[in-house]
Specification:
By secondary structure, the chain is of the alpha+beta class. The protein folds into two domains: 162 residues, no CATH class; 159 residues. Helix content is 61%, strand content 14%. It has eleven helices and seven strands. The protein has a seven-stranded antiparallel β-sheet. Helix 4 runs antiparallel to helix 8 and helix 5 runs antiparallel to helix 8. The longest helix is centred in the middle third of the chain and has 84 residues. The radius of gyration is 51 Å and the shape is rod-shaped.
Length: 359
C-alpha cells in the first residue's frame, strides 16, 4: 500500500474549491442519480455485490459518506469516503513505539559517551603508570650499575689488590682469571709434593707474571666500566625518549578527557533536547479517510479515477496520498475482514506504517 501525493482525480485544493452537490448521501441513501448510478454498478472483485453494498457495509469504517462534486476543470465527480476506526489509538501506539525507540537510541548515545570517557581514563592511568615505572628505572640507573655489575667490578679490584700485595703465597692460592701462565706457576708453587728447587722456580715465574696479570686485570676492568657506562647511557637515553612519548600521550589524554568531561552535560542536554523535539509531533494526524472517486468516461459510464487516503491533521490541514495499487484496495473491501485502521494497514505489505504516521 503506497502512500503518495494524489496523482489523479481531485486534490485537497480542488476539493476546497469544488462545487458541492445538493446532498450528502449516508447509509440511509439519497436520490442523487449520479451517486445511485455508481452505487448500482457491479463490484468487480466480487460481482455478487454492487458498489454500494460493498462500500457501504464495511467493518473498518466509523462513518461512510457519498458526495457529488465538480473539480476545477468541470469534471463531474462522485466521491466516497470511509472514516477509519481506531485511527487515534493507532497514532498513539505508533507514537509511543517511536518515542520508546528514540529513548533507546538516546541512551545508546549517552552510554557510548560514558564508555569513551572511561576508556580515556583507563588509557591515562596506564600511561601514568608506565611513566612512573620509567622514572623509577631512570633513578636506578643514575644511582649506579646493577648488583651483578658491581660484583664483577669488585672481583677485579680484589684480584688486582692481591697481585699488588706481592705476597707470593697469597697470590698462588688466589684464583686469578687473566693469565694462564700465572695459573700454571701457581699450581706448581702450591703443589705439596714439589721439590724445593722447582718450587723456587715456580715462585720466580709468579713474580715475573704479576705485572702482566695486573695489566690484564686493569684492562678488563676498564673495558667493563666503559661497557657499563655505555649501556647505562643507552638505557637512560631510551628511558628519556619513552618518558617524553608518555608525557605527550598523557597530555593528549588529559586534554581529551577534560574536554569530554566538561562537555558531557551539554552533550547530554543536546540529546535530551533533540529527543524532546522529536517525541511530540507538531501537527499529528487525528483522522484518516479512505477516498474513492469516479467520473464519467468516454462511454458515458462512471469509471474509477482515484483511490487513496486523506490524512487530516490537528491544525485542519489534509494530505492526500494515492494508493499505488487501487485493485489491492478493492480486494480488501471485498474481504471486509479488517475492523481497525491498523489491521487494514497491515494488509498492505508495502505500507510503511511509521513513515505514514510521521508525515
Amino acid at each position: 500500500m503506497e502512500y503518495a501525493t494524489r496523482k489523479h482525480g481531485v486534490t485537497s485544493a480542488m476539493v476546497a474549491k469544488a462545487i458541492v452537490a445538493m446532498c450528502v448521501v449516508n447509509l440511509a441513501g439519497c436520490t442523487d442519480s449520479d451517486i445511485s448510478k455508481v452505487k448500482e454498478m457491479k463490484f468487480e472483485p466480487d460481482p455478487s455485490y454492487t458498489v454500494g453494498q460493498a462500500f457501504d457495509h464495511r467493518s473498518v469504517c466509523d462513518a461512510v459518506t457519498w458526495d457529488t462534486i465538480k473539480d476545477e476543470r468541470g469534471r463531474k465527480i462522485v466521491e466516497y469516503r470511509c472514516s477509519f476506526k481506531g485511527v487515534k489509538d493507532y497514532i498513539q501506539s505508533t507514537e509511543e513505539a517511536h518515542l520508546k525507540e528514540m529513548n533507546s537510541n538516546a541512551q545508546v548515545l549517552k552510554n557510548a559517551y560514558l564508555v569513551n570517557i572511561k576508556t580515556l581514563q583507563d588509557n591515562l592511568a596506564q600511561r601514568q603508570k608506565t611513566l612512573a615505572d620509567d622514572q623509577a628505572r631512570l633513578v636506578q640507573t643514575d644511582a649506579g650499575a646493577s648488583n651483578q655489575q658491581d660484583q664483577e667490578v669488585q672481583k677485579l679490584n680484589d684480584q688486582i689488590a692481591v697481585l699488588q700485595s706481592g705476597d707470593i703465597d697469597k697470590i698462588a692460592s688466589t684464583p686469578l682469571d687473566p693469565s694462564a701462565s700465572l695459573g700454571i706457576a701457581a699450581s706448581c708453587y702450591t703443589d705439596p709434593q714439589q721439590n724445593p728447587a722447582v718450587k723456587k722456580h715456580c715462585g720466580d715465574v709468579l713474580r715475573q707474571e704479576i705485572p702482566r696479570a695486573i695489566g690484564a686485570l686493569k684492562q678488563q676492568l676498564s673495558y667493563d666500566m666503559a661497557t657499563r657506562q655505555r649501556n647505562q647511557a643507552d638505557l637512560q637515553a631510551g628511558l628519556k625518549i619513552s618518558m617524553n612519548v608518555e608525557n605527550q600521550q598523557i597530555s593528549e589524554y588529559q586534554q581529551k578527557l577534560g574536554k569530554m568531561t566538561s562537555g558531557k552535560d551539554a552533550y547530554f542536554a543536546s540529546i535530551d533536547n533533540e529527543l524532546k523535539q522529536q517525541s511530540t509531533h507538531p501537527n499529528p494526524i487525528v483522522e484518516v479517510d479512505e477516498v474513492f472517486q469516479w467520473s464519467v468516461g468516454d462511454s458515458g459510464d462512471f469509471v474509477l479515477v482515484y483511490a487513496g487516503t486523506e490524512a487530516k491533521h490537528q491544525d485542519g490541514t489534509a494530505k492526500d496520498q494515492a494508493y499505488g495499487d487501487a485493485e489491492a484496495a478493492l480486494v480488501l473491501i471485498a474481504k471486509n475482514n479488517a475492523t481497525t485502521f491498523v489491521q487494514y494497514l497491515q494488509q498492505f505489505s508495502a505500507q510503511s506504517v511509521m513513515d505514514f504516521v510521521r508525515n
